[in-house]
Every structure is written in C-alpha cells, then in structure tokens.
Input
Amino acid sequence: MSETSHSHESGERLVTMANDIGNYFRAQGREEAIAGIVNHINRYWTPRMRQKLNAYLAQGNSGLDEFPRAAVERLNAQAAAASPQPAAGPSAAR
Output
C-alpha cells in the first residue's frame, strides 16, 4: 500500500469517527452537540489525529456531517487564537 493511499484511508477513517461522534451528540441540539464533539475530540484525539483530519480536509476531501464540520472549525479557531502571535512593531523586523 502506498503512503498516499494509507494517509487517504486514515483521513476517511477519521471522518467516519468524527461523524459517529456527531451522531452520538446530535439529539442534544446544534450548539450542545457541537460543544460535545469539540470536548470529545479535545479529550480523546491525539494532536496527530487532529492534524491528519485537517490535512485530509485541506486536500479537498469532504464527508464530514454538519455538526462535526462546525466542531472542527471551532477547534481550529480555538487553536489559532491560542497560538502565540509574532510581535508587531519595529523590533519585530530584526
């Protein structure tokens, strides 16, 4: 099996897992379901799993249901907000 097909399958598997998590939380209503999915992924998925899912989606692959997709977007926004930003101003150009 090639490296590309292996990572492709891993991405598909992660999408299936995220959708399964979404189905579990779906009955709670949109906002609570998304928060539940975010919490589950934060608690139980490794950073590598999250990176693989994001890389798979960035390649134009889809398959995520509405709630898991919103949860991934929320997780990515949280990660971006938590990342240290480069300092602005004249000393930053050195």
About this structure: The helical segments are 3-25, 30-44, 47-58, 66-82.
